[in-house]
Design brief:
Distance between the termini: 55 Å
Bound molecules: ligand C2E, calcium ion
Number of strands: 9
Strand content: 15-25%
Helix content: 40-55%
Low-confidence stretches: 1-16
Number of helices: 12
Structural class: alpha/beta
Oligomer: single chain
Largest sheet: 8 strands, mixed, barrel
Strand order of the largest sheet: 1-2-4-5-6-7-8-9
Shape: globular
Order of helices and strands: HHEEEHHEHHEHHEHEHEHEH
Length: 279
C-alpha cells in the first residue's frame, strides 16, 4: 500500500524495510504480545576471523507468537517503526542486552561486547540518550562494551542531528557500527564527519564469495578503506569456510554468520562461550 502525506515516518519505513502490506491484525497482536511478554532476544556470536574466539554478540529480537510461531523481525520491526512501538521494544532490548552481557562476561571471564540494533526512529527520539544512560547505569556495563548498530540511512536523514547524537554516544564511550555497510544511500564523506568505529559488510557482498569477482572487489575496497581510517570490520552472513578464509586473508577482523554461530537464546550462547574458552 502506498502511504503518502503521513510525514517523515513513511520515508524511513518505505526505504529501509518495505513492509509487504500494512497488516492490521499483526499490529494488534503486537500490542498484545508486549503485554504477554512474547518478545525475546537472541544472540549471535561475533568472532575473531583468525582465531574464531567469540568477541561479542549481536542482539536480535524475536517474537514468539503462541499460534503463528516465530514471527521474523522483517515482518514486525517495520510495523513497530511505523506505530512507534519500536521505542519501547528498543529500550527494553538495549537494557536487557546490557544486563545479559554481564552474565556472558562472568562465564567467559574476559571482556566481551554487546551489539544492539538502533532503528531510525529510536535514534531520532528525544529520549534516546536517557534510554542509553539508563541501560548502562542499571546494568553496570561500561559504555565501551556497547556497540550501537545504525544504518547509513539513519545517519543521512538529518546529519546535523546525527552528529550531535553520535557525539553524545562517544562521550559515553559507546562505539558506533554502520550496519549493512554499502547498501544504503550515502556518501563516504560521513566516515570522516562522524565518530564511527566499525563497518559491518552486508551479507549481500559476502554470500557469493569467493566466485563473485565484483563482490570480492567491493569487500577488498571496504577492507582497505577501513584499514586506512582505522575502523574495524565485521563480515556479515558468513556461511562457508571459503568465505571466512577469503575475508580473513584480506585482513577482516571479525565475522558473524551461520558458519560460526546462528542467533541463539542466551542460555545456548552461554554454553557456546564455555566451549569457546581460550584461556
Ligand atoms: P541485521 O541487523 O542486518 O541482522 C543480521 C541478520 O542476518 C539477522 O536476521 C541474522 O539472523 C541474519 N544472519 C546472520 N548470519 C546469517 C547467515 O550466515 N546467513 C543468513 N542467511 N542470515 C544470517 P534477523 O534476526 O532475521 O533480523 C533481521 C533484521 O531485523 C536485522 O538485520 C535488523 O535490521 C532487524 N532487527 C532484528 N532485531 C532488531 C532489534 O532488536 N532492533 C531493531 N531496530 N532491529 C532489529
Ligand atoms: Ca545489525
Ligand atoms: Ca546487518
Ligand atoms: Ca541486514
Amino acid at each position: 500500500a502506498k502511504e503518502t502525506g503521513k510525514g517523515r515516518t513513511v520515508v524511513y519505513s518505505v526505504r529501509e524495510s518495505s513492509p509487504p502490506q500494512h497488516d492490521i491484525s499483526l499490529e494488534a497482536a503486537m500490542f498484545h504480545a508486549v503485554r504477554e511478554g512474547e518478545f525475546l532476544l537472541y544472540y549471535q556470536p561475533i568472532v575473531a576471523a583468525r582465531t574464531r574466539q567469540i568477541e561479542g554478540f549481536e542482539t536480535l529480537m524475536r517474537w514468539k507468537h503462541p499460534t503463528l510461531g516465530m514471527v521474523p523481525p522483517v515482518r514486525f520491526i517495520p510495523i513497530a517503526e511505523t506505530n512507534g512501538l519500536i521505542n519501547m521494544l528498543g529500550a527494553w532490548a538495549l537494557k536487557a542486552a546490557c544486563v545479559q552481557l554481564r552474565q556472558f562476561e562472568d562465564i567467559a571471564r574476559r571482556p566481551l561486547y554487546i551489539s544492539v540494533n538502533i532503528s531510525p526512529r529510536q535514534f531520532r527520539s528525544d529520549r534516546f540518550l536517557d534510554v542509553l544512560d539508563d541501560a548502562l547505569a542499571f546494568s553496570g556495563t561500561p559504555g565501551e562494551r556497547l556497540v550501537l548498530e545504525i544504518t547509513e540511512g539513519t545517519l543521512m536523514v538529518d546529519p546535523v542531528h546525527a552528529e550531535a547524537i553520535l557525539g553524545k554516544m562517544a562521550e559515553r564511550r559507546a562505539r558506533i557500527a554502520i550496519d549493512d555497510f554499502g547498501t544504503g544511500y550515502s556518501s563516504l564523506a560521513y566516515l570522516k564527519r562522524f565518530p564511527i568505529s566499525v563497518l559491518k559488510i552486508d551479507r549481500a557482498f559476502i554470500k557469493d564469495l569467493p566466485a563473485a569477482e565484483k563482490d570480492g572487489a567491493i569487500c577488498n575496497a571496504v577492507l582497505d578503506l577501513a584499514k586506512h581510517l582505522d575502523l574495524s570490520v565485521v563480515a556479515e552472513g558468513v556461511e562457508t569456510e571459503e568465505q571466512l578464509e577469503y575475508v580473513a586473508s584480506r585482513g577482516c577482523d571479525y565475522v558473524q554468520g551461520y558458519l560460526t554461530g546462528k542467533p541463539m537464546p542466551a542460555h545456548v550462547a552461554m554454553a557456546a562461550l564455555k566451549e569457546n574458552l581460550y584461556a
